[in-house]
User: Fold these one by one.
Assistant:
Number 1:
Amino acid sequence: MAASPHSPNSTFRRLRGQRSPAEFAALVRRAAKEIGETVSCDARYIGRVESGEIRCPNYAYERVFLHLFPGRTLADLGFPPREAVRGRAAHRDPFSANAAVPVPAHHRPGPSPKESDVLRRAFMAGGSATVAAATLGLTLLGDTRRVPARAGESEAAAVEDAVRQIRLLDDRHGADALYRRAAEPLRTAYALLDAGAARQSTEDRLHAGAGELAVSVGWLAHDSGRFDDARSHYAEALATARVSGDAGLEAHAFSNMAFLARDCGRSRESVRAAQAGRRAARSLGSPRLLSLLALREAGGWAGLADRKACEEALARAHTEFSRGEGDTDPEWMSFFGEAELEFLEARCWAALGEYARAARHARRAADLQDPHFARNVALYTAELAGDLARAGAPDEAAWAGGRVLDLLAEVQSTRIRSMLSGTARALVPHQRSPRVGTFLTRHAAV
C-alpha cells in the first residue's frame, strides 16, 4: 500500500533489507549507470523517501527504481500515484522528447494560477534551462516572493534539489543558457542563510546546500567563459565551507578553483589549490575524491612543464581511482568515472606537447562516455579533435570536429566552442583536404 502524506514508506524500507542507507544509495547509483541515467542519490535521500518526505520520486529516480526492482510499479514500492500527489506538476522538457522535470512540492499545496503562469513564461522564454531557477524561486518564495523569517526543512530541501537540477541540465545541455538564470536561486539561498533556521540541523543543510549551489553556479560561469564570475562564486563557496567547517564542501571548492586556475593559465595557483583540496579531503575517506584532486594537481604541473611532478600526480590519481567507488564519495562526484579520468589525463599530455599520446586518452574518454551525457561527449570529442590536429592527423581531426558540430545543436558551451575554434585554426594549413575543407566551412557557418 502506498504511504500516506504523513506516514513513513515502510514498503520501501522493507525493500532495502539489511543494507544501510548508504549501501542502498550506492546500489541505486549503480543501477542508474546501467541505464544511462544520472541521480545524486545518497543516504539522506533514502532517508527522505523512507520517512515519507518524498512522496513520489522524480522521473529520473522512477526509471532507476523500476530498473532496480523489475516487474514492480511505483505503488509496489510504496509510492502513491503521481497524479494523486498534490503540488507535483510535471513539465515536459522541450529539449528532450522523453525527459520531464518535475517541480518538487515539499508538502506544499498545488501551484497557484500565478505560479503556473510564471513557469509557463519561463518555459517560453528559455526552455528547460530555466526550470532549476523557476522551480527554486517558486518553491521557496511562493506568491509573495519573500524569504521566510526562519528557514525550515522544505527550504533546505529546495536548495538541495536546485543543485541537482542544475547538474542534470548542465550534463545534457551545457552551461551557457543556464548561468544567468541560476544566479537568482543562489541569491535566495544566501538570503535564507541570513534569515537563519530554527534547528541547527537545518542550518547545516542550508550551509552545505548554499555552498554547493555556489560551486554549481560558479561552474556554469566557468564553462561559459565568465572566469571572473566563476572565481567569485568559488570563493563564496570556500568561505561558506570555512564558516561551517564543511571539509567536503571545502575540497569541492578547491577542486574547481584548481580547474579554473589551470584554464586561466595560472598553473602554480592550480597546483596549490589542488593540494589544499587534498588536505581538506584527507578526513573524508573517499579515494575517488583524492583521485580527482590528484588529476587537478597533475594538470597544474603539466602547465608548468614539470613532467616528473605531473607523472607522479597521475600515478597517485590512478592508484586512488583503482580503489573503486565508496559510500563516502560525495554525491557531486557522480560525473567522475573512467571517461573523465581519461579526459583529464589527455589534457595533461597535451599541455606537455605529447599530442599523439593525448589523443589516445581523449579517444578512450569519448568512447567510454555514455551518449546520454551530450555535453561530456562533445567536450571529450573536442579534446580529441584538437589533439589529432596537433599530432599531424588532420583528416581524423576534421572528422572529430564535425562530430562536435553535430553535438553543438543540443549543447551550449562557450568552452567547447573555444576548443573547436582552436582546432579550426590548427587545420587551416590543411584546408585543401576535402574532409578538412568541409569541416572548416561548417565551422565558419556555425
Number 2:
Amino acid sequence: MSITLNAHQLGRLLDRTADHIGDEYLPVLHGIRLEADTAFLYAIATDRYTLAVARYRHHGLNSAPFARTIPARTLPALRRWLTDQPGSAPVTLTLTDGRIRFTAPHSEMSLAVDDSQQFIGWRGLLRDVIAKTKDGDETAFPALATRLLARFATADEHLRVRTAPGCEAVLLVGEDFLGAQKPVRSRHEGFDTGLADSLEDVNALWDVSLTDPDGLTAVMPTGRPRYDASRTPTDTVEALLRQTMSSTRDLIEENGSPRAVHAHAAAGVMAWSAYRYLKALQQADPKLAARIITEVADELDDGALGEFAWDAAAEAGFDPQKWQDELEAATPAASGTAG
C-alpha cells in the first residue's frame, strides 16, 4: 500500500490538524489519522470538542484505500524530518505490518502504528453539522482570518459567536466580554481566498469525501481542475529563460527608437521575474505550479489578455480605467518625441 505526494503538502496536512489532537488518555484520538481513498489523502484529528479534516488530491493511489493513525509522540520527529526535505521532494507513504514508512529521495523514516486501531466516524459527524447549519440563513456565511480569531483565545474560556446578514462584523460574547471581528472578502488584496462562498459550494466540494466509503473508496468527481499541464514546467522554464536571453540580446543590439529599447528591456525583465516566481512555486508546491501553467496556457490561447488584466486589476482594488487614461494621455507625447 503506497501513495506519493511532496514533502511540503504532507507537512501542511499535519500542521493544519495537529492542534486538534486528543489527549493521551484517549489513545484512539491521540494522534493524526491518515486516510487515503481513490481521490484524496486526508489528515484528521479531534479532541472531541473540535474536529479538523484537511485533504490533498493525490496523483494516484498505488494500492487499496487505507487508514492508519500516527501516534502523537512520533509526530514531532516526523515533522522535523519533513522540514529537512526540499518542499518539492516526493515522499512515498508505504504501509507494512505494524509500520508506516516515509521515503524521500535521500532518506526515509519508519514509524510504528497499530494496524487494528479504529477512529471516529468523522464523515457522518461533518455531514450532520453541515445539514443542521443549512437550516440557518444562507447569506450569513462570513470568512474569518484565523490569525485574528486566535487573538480571542485569552478573552474567556468560552465565547458565543453570532452573525447575521448584512452585519459588518461577527460578534463574540463572553462573561463580561464583547468582541467583534470583521470578515474578509472572498477576494482579499487581489488574491482569491479559495473559500466556498455558500453551503451549496461546501456540499459540492466535499460530498465525495463525506460519503461513507466501502473500503475507503471514493468516486473521482468530475469537472475538477486537472493537474497534468498542457506544457510541462520544464518546457515553461526553458521558454522563459530563452525569452530572457533573447530580449537581452535584442536590447544590446537595438539601434531603433527608445520605445523599442524599452519593450526589449521590459520583456526580459518580465520573463526573468516569471522564471524566478515559477521556480519558487515549484519548490513550494509542484502540483499547483503545473495547474497554473495549464490555466495560463488556456488564457494565452484565448488571447483576451487585456480584458483579463482589466478584471484582475479591478478585483485587486486598483483603478484600471485610470491606468487606461494615463496610457492614452502618454501615447501622443511618446509618439511626438520619437518623431
Number 3:
Amino acid sequence: MDPSQQGGQQPYQPHPMPQPHPAYLPNQPYQSYPVPPFAPTPAVNGLSIASLVCGLVCCLPPLGLVFGLISLRQIRRRGERGKGMAIAGTILSSVSTLLTLALLATGVLGSAWEGMKEGMDEASRSRSTLDLRSGDCFNLPGEGKTDDSETAAVETVECAGEHQAEIAGDYKITGYREFPGERRLEAIAEEGCQKINDAYAMDPWAVPVTMDFYYYLPTRQSWRLDDRSITCGFATTKGEMTTGSVRRDATVLDPHQVAYLRAEGLVLQAHYVIPEADFAEDVAGHQQWATRVAAALGQQARALRQHTWPQSASGPAADRAAEFERAGAHWQKAASTRDEERFWGHSRAGETALARKTEIALRGAIGLETVPPIEPEAEQESSI
C-alpha cells in the first residue's frame, strides 16, 4: 500500500539547505567597484586678490575698482573662485575713490601731501651727530645756543643758506680703554680741534665774529658703544644765523692764497700757547713762548720771500716779509729778558710792527677778504 495513503498523513521529506549568497561564498574573490573621476577645485582669480588688496590699503583706489570689475567678468566666464574678494575689493575701492575725489575737491589731500613731503624732507635732513662729516652745515637744536645740553641729532642744511654751525672734521681718541671723563675729553678736543679748524678755515677773516670754536664729544653712554670720535667745527654762540661756508683750505683756495695764509697762520698758532700763569710765576715759560713767536715770524718772512708771487702781489708780499722780520727781532729781545716790564714792552713792539694796511694790501692783491673782523663790542662803540 502506498504509504501516502496510510492515516492521511504526508511522509516527512528533508528540506534542502539554502544556498549562501554569492558574495559570501568561500574563496570568492573581492569584486571592486569603479571609482568616479576626480573633479579639480576651481582656481582663485588673481585680479580678485589684487582688487581686495588695493581696496584695503587705499592705494590707488581706482585701480582696485577696475581690478574688481574685470575679475567678476572673468569669474563668471571661467568658473573661478574669488567672487567674494572681488566684490569686497570693488566696494572698498569705490568708497576710497569717492573719498579721494572729495578730498581733492576740498584741498585737504593737497595740504596733507604737502605736510607729508615737509615731514619727509625734515626727516631726511635729520642726522646723528656721529654721522656729521667735514663740510656739513646744520642748525643747533633747542634754542640754538652752543651751551645747550648734549645733542643726539641735528638738522643739516645747505651751507649757502642760513645755518648756525659747520663741521670742519673729526678724529679718533686713542690710548684710553675706559671713559676718561668729560674734562679730559675737553682738553683733548681743544688741542686736536684747534689744528683741524685752522686747516679747514685757514683765513680767520672769513669766519664771522659770531662763530666760535665748537666740538662734539663722546658721552659715557656712546663710549660704551665704541664711540671714540671728536667732531670739530664752528658754531654761532647765541643762536644767530649765518650764511656761506667758512671753509678756506687747499680745496677752495689757489696756491698764492694758501702760501700767504700758511705764513700768517704760523704766528697765530704760536700765540695760542701763551702760558696760563703770570709772568712772575713762570718767567721761563714766557721766555719760551716769546722764542716760539720769534721763530714763527722768521719762518713767515722766509716763506713769503721764497714764494713766486704774481706781479701785483710781489710788492705787498716783500713789505709784509720785512714786517715779520722786524716783529721777530722784538720778540727775540722779549725772550732774552727776565724783567716783566721789558718783556711786555718788547712783545707789544713786536705786535705793532705788523701794520694792518700792509696785510690788507697783500690780501687784496691775491683775492682774499680785505675787511678785518670787527668784534661785537667794537662795532657797538663805533655806532654810538
Number 4:
Amino acid sequence: MASMSCLEVASNWQQVEQAQQQGTFRFARDQGPITWDIDHTAPFSEYLAQAKAIISSRNTRAQQNCPILTPVAKQLGYEITDVKVADLVAPFELRHNNNDRAILLIHGLTDSPFTFHYLAGQLYQQGYNVRAILLPGHGTAPSDLQHIELSQWQALVNYAVARTSQDFQQFAVLGYSTGAALAITAVSKNPTENITAMALISPASEPHNKHGWLAKWIAKVPFINWIDEDADFDFAKYESFPWQAAALANDAMAMLTTHTFPANLPLFSTFSEVDTTIDSLASLAMLKRFALDSQRPTTHSLLYYGNKNTAKAQLPKGYNILSPQCDHLTCDSTIDMSHIGILQPPEHPYYGWQGIYRSCGGYLAELPKYLECKKHPTPLLGERTSRNTSYEVPLQRLTFNPTYDDFVAYLTTFLDNHFSTHVQP
C-alpha cells in the first residue's frame, strides 16, 4: 500500500483485516520517546518548521500523495498534484497583512490540524489570522502517543497561547475535544488581557466511560498497550488507541475541576446530547459552573445538538441555548450528531457525505459488520451508540455536520460580536 495515495488507502476496505492484524500504519518510523523542545521565545514559524520535521521523520506515510485541496491547502499555495500527507496533518498559519486579530485552534485526542481545514479557511476569509497547532504524539503514528506526557501537551498549548497573545492585538482560542480541555486549563491559569473569547467544540469534560481513571494504571502493565487496534487507514486521525492516550485525556479532564473559568471571558460551546466519547451531562454541568462564576453570563452561548429542554433544565435560567436547523438532503438518514462530526461540512471530499473515508470503529470487534459498514451503499449516519449499531443496516459514525452552515454562522457571529471593530478583508 506504500505506492497508493491516501484516498486509495482509505477506500481499500478489502485490506482492512490485514492492516489491523499487522499494524501496517500503527507504528512510527522510529520507536521510543519524541523530543519536543518548546522554546517559549521562538517565533511561531520556528515551531511550524520543527513540527513538520518531526512528521517527516516519523510518519511512514508523510510523503504519500494525498490529493485533497482543502481551503487551507489552497491558501498555503499547494497544488492538488503536489499535496502530501505531511502537508495536511501539519500545524499551519494563515496570515493577513496585519496583526489585528487571530484565532488559535487546538485539536483533539488522536486528531490533527486537518480537522480544522474548512473552518480555518472560512475564519480567514472573514478577516481573522488563523493558527493551528499539532499536539505532541500526533501527526505521526498512534504508537507515538505511548511516549507522551500531559506536561508536553500543556507546554505547547501554553506556548501557543502566549505567543499568539504577543503577536496579535486581540485573539480567541478554539479547542476541540481534548484540545478544549487543554485550552480551558491554559487560559484559566494564565489569562491574558487581549484574549477576547473562547470556543469549545465537543469539549472533553468527563469521559462517557466512567472507568477512564483506570487507564493510567493499565498503561503501566507490560504488553497491554492498546484499547483499539484498527487499520489506521485514516491518514489524519488515529484509529488505533493506546491506553496511555486514554490516561492522558483523563488527566487533562480531571484538571478542569480545579480551575475557574475567567470571569469576563465570553464563551461559545457546542456538542451532541448523545456523544459517546464525552458525557454530555458533565459538559452541561461544566458550562453551568462557568456561567455561575462569570461576571458576564449573557456572553455565554450553547449550540446544542439534542433536546433543548434537556440543556435548559441543566443550565442557569436565561442561558443562551441555540438549536441548529437541519435542511441538508442527508437529514432524513441522520439519526443524531456524533462527537466527531460538528467541524466538517457535508461537501468535505474526505469526511463528507460522499467522502472517501468512513468511520466504522463501532464494529471493530465484529469484522463482517465492520466491512459491511465500509462498503454499504446507504449506511445509517449518527453516533455509535449501542442502539444505533443494533440496526440491520450498518451505522457509519457521522463524520460531517448536516447543519454545518448553522454552526459556522453562530460561531462567527459570536466571534465578531466580541472582537472590537472587526473589518472584513
